[in-house]
Amino acid sequence: MHEDDSVVVKYYDNKGAGGLAVSKMAFSLTADLGCEYGGGVECAHGPNKANVFGMMGYDRTWFDHDLYAVTFGGGFMNNPGRYLASILPVNGATAATGTPYFTENPGQKLYQWDTQLNFQYMPKDWITWWTEGTFRHSDVPYFSGPGGVTPPAANNGSPASLLCNNGSPIGGGNCAGEGGIGYPDLRTREVVWGAGVLVKF
Fold first, then answer.
1. 16 or 24: whose pLDDT is higher?
2. Residue 97 CB contacts under 8 Å (≥ 6 apart), including other chains
3. N- to C-terminal Cα distance for the chain?
4. Mean pLDDT of 30-46
5. How far apart are CA 94 and CA 86, in angstroms?
6. What Rg, from alpha-carbon coordinates, does the chain have?
7. What is the structure's pLDDT at 173?
8. What percent of the chain has pLDDT over 90?
9. Does residue 156 have a pLDDT over 90?
10. CA distance linking residue 167 with residue 183, whole number of Å
């Protein structure tokens, strides 16, 4: 069961504003609420709960006849059971294979939040130059660090298995002769900066 609602409101509009004067202001607010139940999974209570609640909000301000715009906002997600979280692609893992490095068992906690600042320059209706910075945080290691999530000897075709440090799957052994169990470089924080251009044809 899921509910997903969004609202967008333009609360200021001055088409004649030039220079650094504000020409428009608007905000968006989105809320998501849902859960699953059955097969031993509870919707909202108990140790085996699997639900999600999240919100995000952004405020955007345009300047100089809509030539420039700044957007600031962020959001959070609480997802015990992790059933709506993307599987980490450790050793090529997918939602179908799963991975022991990020399990999705009932009741397992996952709380994440992020914030973002974006600047856009729009000299024409058909082109937008942009740059933005994003900070993300997770209460469990989730984001890829400099060491990455690919095994030392590349993906070995066994994404549902723990890995040895030499890249082989652990299978029924304990990796004692392969340098011990290997772990991907996962972090609880991520800082991302990006820039680009959008062109409409």
1. 24
2. 87, 159, 160
3. 39
4. 90
5. 9
6. 22
7. 66
8. 69
9. no
10. 10
Closest CA to 159 of 86, 90, 105, 88: 90
Residues 6+ away with beta carbon under 8 Å from 121: 67, 68, 128, 129, 130
- Given a contact cutoff of 8 angstroms between Cβ atoms, the answer to whether 113 and 77 are in contact is yes
CB 87 within 8 A of CB 100: no
- Which helix (H) or strand (E) segment holds residue 166: the answer is none
Query: What confidence tens digit (pLDDT) does each residue in 171-195 have?
Result: 666 787 777 888 899 999 999 999 9
Residues in the chain: 201
* C-beta separation of 2 from 34 below 8 A: yes
DSSP SS3 for 177: helix
Distance between CA atoms of residues 48 and 105, nearest Å: 8
Tell me the DSSP string of 66-134.
Answer: TTEEEEEEEEEEE-TT-TTSPPP-GGG--TTT--TTS---TT---EEEEEEEEEEEEEETTEEEEEEEE
Render pLDDT for 94-129 as a digit per residue (tens, 0 to 9): 999 999 999 998 889 999 999 999 999 999 999 999
pLDDT given at position 172 = 61
Whether 88 and 100 have beta carbons less than 8 Å apart is answered as no
The pair of structure tokens assigned to 143 is: 């984001």
